[in-house]
């Protein structure tokens, strides 16, 4: 297969005859926009979970449930979930486009990436907004301090 | 067209005075930043998949969540978390470098790569000792 490679710094020209939304351009913009927001969200996430207090040693249901009981951390985590999965999925798509040379394998990989991203976004969003920080019948010492004693 | 591009490249490689000559992406800082950005990106993506699944266990039961999260507190996982944070911090700072190259100027891309490495070292000096103390101080 003869492929013509442009010189790396030649100006980009969209193939003629392409109409409608330029999705690749919006994907490119999304990677940069979401990247900047993700730096704030993930650095904050790492600082609060790993640096403050006893860090990773203090992580347990009580800690996470205590955080996720507040709408602030719910929205923080949901924003991180959506932005990071779409950012990562789009990055993986770029890599598959670069390295998977067969049309069929490329298709399989990209559908697998899409499926993983969609399933985890739905799962994560449902978990954040439907979980109960004080599940009935659980031992009190595993729960956040604000849970009413049974 | 391919022959012409190839000739343009070789002729540009010989001129060292005009930067960025040739390509930003082959050899030296440009290429290594690109390689590291890909590798760290893929690593972070796969961790993200696992991390969402383990966090989803808060919806199952406190016991299930604690059982899984306690494996994150072992020494080997502690070292893995340090590597993960190292990957995230590099990807973050190099991402800013990419944005600056795209929206500002490619002129300082090499300098900015060393700034990224410098900021990465400083951030990791702040993070790694504290995290490793938490991991190894049982």
Can you put this structure into words, describing what you see?
The complex is a heterodimer of chains A (150) and B (138). Chain A is an all-alpha fold. Chain A has a single domain (30-142), classed as Fumarate reductase/succinate dehydrogenase, transmembrane subunit (3 helical TM bundles of succinate and fumarate reductases, Up-down Bundle), CATH 1.20.1300.10. Chain A is built from 4 helices and no strands. In chain A, helix 1 (23-51) crosses helix 3 (71-99) and helix 3 (71-99) runs antiparallel to helix 4. The longest helix of chain A is centred in the N-terminal third of the chain and has 29 residues, at 23-51. Chain A is elongated, with a radius of gyration of 22 Å. The model of chain A has no long low-confidence stretch (mean pLDDT 90). Chain B is elongated and about 55 Å long. Chain B has one domain (25-136): 3 helical TM bundles of succinate and fumarate reductases, CATH 1.20.1300. Chain B contains 5 helices and no strands. The model of chain B has no long low-confidence stretch (mean pLDDT 85). Helices cover 78% and strands 0% of the residues of chain B. In chain B, helix 2 (28-56) crosses helix 4 (75-103) and helix 4 (75-103) runs antiparallel to helix 5 (109-136). By secondary structure, chain B is mainly alpha-helical. Chains A and B meet through helix 1, helix 2, helix 3 and helix 4 of A and helix 1, helix 2, helix 3, helix 4 and helix 5 of B. Chain A: This is Succinate dehydrogenase hydrophobic membrane anchor subunit. Chain A: Keywords: Heme, Iron, Membrane, Metal-binding, Transmembrane, Transmembrane helix. Chain A: The chain crosses the membrane at residues 29-52, 72-90, 111-131. Chain A: It is found in: Membrane. Chain A: It holds the Pfam family Sdh_cyt. Chain B: Residues 1-15 have a biased composition (Polar residues).
